[in-house]
């Protein structure tokens, strides 16, 4: 995967602190890629609680099935991730691989295999050789350390052009806690979940059901608000681990007011990672933010925003730096949601190009075009029907997307 | 629009007969394009009955609004079409243009403006100057003739690379009737309706409500089974006109058994045109037929087939001649329809690549690849759940699609 780094990559990478109770190592197992790491083993101290959100695909991967079962108990001791092969649509062999790698990791960490969480990303339908992963575990287990996070993020990349990390701090009671997250994209990105793997770690002490509430809420306006191509992966996995090592009081009530700052920090980390996924959409040259307001509901605004964000004609117009608001009208119209053509207003950046169902009489093509030449495109649509509002994130559709996906497997 | 003719264009164009009661002329009004025709006027003899199907967009164009209203009376005396400007999202100006052009055409044909049907295709959101169309009407009205159909098809093209015509014959009672149809694509192609304009003419005598039944049924497996990019136009219009000039008995009961051959002929013409639309999808290099069988219902099969046909990852894999059935699994999974991963089987052409939820052990990569190198790709998916079956038509997603749509407006 020798694609140039996305021009939309963040200019700086945050300082990523250690998370007490979390140690990890990466390894090069040669699953598909040569000359790079492709396995990440994260060991978690005893007492770690876990929450997860997974793909809505009806054909989920074997690791997704595995994680869903393990999640019921709410406890985790490790997460083992590989890139290069998704272990999806691999039948009985795929299940055997999952069981073998969980057993292997359990042996090194010293826990029940059911406390091992697994994720795989890469090609679908090719058997994943458990042996390659098992072979690197002894050495990886001997090298566990509390950093650097950027290496963890690199090991899980597929067609990603840059590693994705984010961090935030919060207080619970009087105690500082930290959150560190990593994510990978970069194709098959569509909501429920946005296709990706992401793992967020904190030293807060939060009961698994509360953690699940927080995570399920956090994805709505972050990972589920991102689309690259409308294609939902078989393997989307977002896991949140809380080691409890901060010494902060354990929270076991979702209504506990001491969760406020943590909730905000978690929302910030997931939004940051989700936006990075859109910024690294395959072939992306422009980051696109679509805001719909005045819809009859939040859900209706989301469906319209997604209709716009997923429209190939809108996305190619953005790639061509064309302030083509006619295609926005088309995408609003096809969403099937309440919309009154004659109340519609549309902005590119700060320029209102359409109002009351027709071209804005004061519309400056020059101003709109200037906005389209930037690399952060903001499209705003006002429906004038109600209070529903939503923002989604995507990228443009370029020839590079076609090139990347026309020769990905071979 | 100087795009090379699609390599998927039909090798031969059928002999298109005259349709008694139908005369037409084309003109170059310079609406947007230079050096080509962009207006089509079709005059219909008195007594012509009409049926129509239109876009489901919530933001339809002014001509679509106009046609929907006129359709209620079931009578038509002319259809006036322009390419280069869709007269969509043009507010009060758009309505005025519709009224002015209908009045103008009515004056030349000698009928009520409500018996004039209108269609416009091209850029959205730019005012359409009625004067340019009115200026060419006198000359066009003086040149009305019963052929050649290929010129009618050319005048309505936008980014189409070849004109689309189809014809069929049938008997009603003992009398021969003829059907001639034209269509244009080639972007914003998605079902309900597949984005396009299409006009079908026959000399049969069929009551408007019966005609509507026939047309509504015909689109299900033809125009509504086609997708290029999942983007539904504001302007989709399919009109069926029956002049009654054949002398065949007039049919006013949809259950009349004498309709059998006509129904089959209409289905054949609409399917032929719809497939040509997919063959001329913007940037298309491969025609793709997606068949889903064993679904729980026809509707479920359709949704899964459309999920596959609209998937950018499937379409780019086809462009790359990659037998990437993992992406088929993904697209089946994301459709949200009942599917059992472990019963799924997938074929490319005659090669079964996956069975029982995993790679077919006898799978020949060479055979599958050979099929992918052709220009007619057949993808078959068996779900093993029920009797539901459907076929949809699409094309691959190429760099040329991005190029065409990145600089369409400017």
UniProtKB/TrEMBL annotation, chains A, B:
Protein keywords: Acyltransferase, Amino-acid biosynthesis, Arginine biosynthesis, Autocatalytic cleavage, Cytoplasm, Multifunctional enzyme, Transferase
Enzyme class: transferase
Record's GO cellular component terms: cytoplasm
SUPFAM superfamilies: DmpA/ArgJ-like (SSF56266)
E.C. numbers: 2.3.1.35, 2.3.1.1
Chief subcellular location: cytoplasm
Binding site for substrate: 158, 184, 195, 282, 405, 410
Pathway given in the UniProt record: Amino-acid biosynthesis; L-arginine biosynthesis; N(2)-acetyl-L-ornithine from L-glutamate: step 1/4; Amino-acid biosynthesis; L-arginine biosynthesis; L-ornithine and N-acetyl-L-glutamate from L-glutamate and N(2)-acetyl-L-ornithine (cyclic): step 1/1
Its biological purpose: Catalyzes two activities which are involved in the cyclic version of arginine biosynthesis: the synthesis of N-acetylglutamate from glutamate and acetyl-CoA as the acetyl donor, and of ornithine by transacetylation between N(2)-acetylornithine and glutamate.
Name listed for the protein in its UniProt record: Arginine biosynthesis bifunctional protein ArgJ
């Amino acid at each position: 995967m020798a694609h140039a780094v996305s021009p939309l990559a963040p200019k700086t990478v945050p300082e990523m602190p250690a998370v007490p109770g979390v140690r990890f190592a990466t390894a090069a197992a040669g699953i598909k890629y040569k000359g790079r790491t492709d396995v990440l083993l994260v060991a978690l101290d005893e007492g770690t609680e876990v929450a997860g959100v997974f793909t809505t695909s009806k054909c989920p991967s074997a690791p997704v099935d595995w994680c869903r079962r393990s999640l019921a108990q709410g406890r985790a001791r490790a997460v083992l991730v590989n890139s290069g092969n998704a272990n999806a649509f691999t039948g009985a062999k795929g299940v055997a691989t999952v069981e073998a790698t969980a057993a292997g990791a359990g042996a090194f960490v010293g826990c029940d295999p059911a406390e091992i969480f697994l994720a795989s990303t890469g090609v679908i339908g090719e058997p994943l050789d458990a042996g390659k992963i098992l072979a690197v575990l002894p050495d990886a287990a001997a090298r566990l350390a509390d950093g650097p996070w950027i290496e963890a993020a690199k090991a899980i990349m597929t067609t990603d052009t840059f590693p994705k990390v984010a961090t935030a701090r919060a207080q619970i009671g009087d105690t500082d806690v930290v959150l560190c997250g990593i994510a990978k994209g970069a194709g098959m990105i569509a909501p429920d979940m946005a296709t990706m793997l992401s793992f967020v770690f904190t030293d807060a002490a939060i009961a698994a059901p509360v953690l699940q509430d927080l995570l399920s809420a956090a994805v709505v306006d972050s990972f589920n608000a991102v689309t690259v191509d409308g294609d939902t992966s078989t393997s989307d996995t977002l896991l949140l681990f809380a080691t409890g090592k901060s010494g902060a009081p354990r929270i076991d009530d979702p209504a506990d007011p001491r969760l406020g700052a943590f909730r905000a920090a978690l929302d910030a980390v997931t939004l940051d990672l989700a936006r990075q996924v859109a910024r690294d959409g395959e072939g992306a040259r422009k980051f696109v933010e679509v805001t719909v307001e005045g819809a009859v509901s939040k859900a209706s605004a989301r469906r319209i925003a997604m209709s716009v964000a997923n429209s190939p004609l809108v996305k190619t117009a953005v790639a061509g730096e064309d302030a083509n608001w006619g295609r926005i009208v088309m995408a609003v119209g096809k969403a099937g949601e309440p919309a009154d053509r004659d109340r519609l207003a549309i902005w590119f950046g700060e320029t209102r190009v359409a109002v009351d169902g027709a071209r804005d009489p004061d519309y400056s093509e020059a101003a709109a075009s200037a906005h389209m030449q930037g690399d952060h495109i903001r499209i705003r649509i006002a429906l004038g029907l109600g209070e529903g509002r939503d923002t989604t994130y995507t990228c443009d559709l370029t020839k590079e997307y076609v090139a990347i996906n026309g020769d990905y497997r071979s």
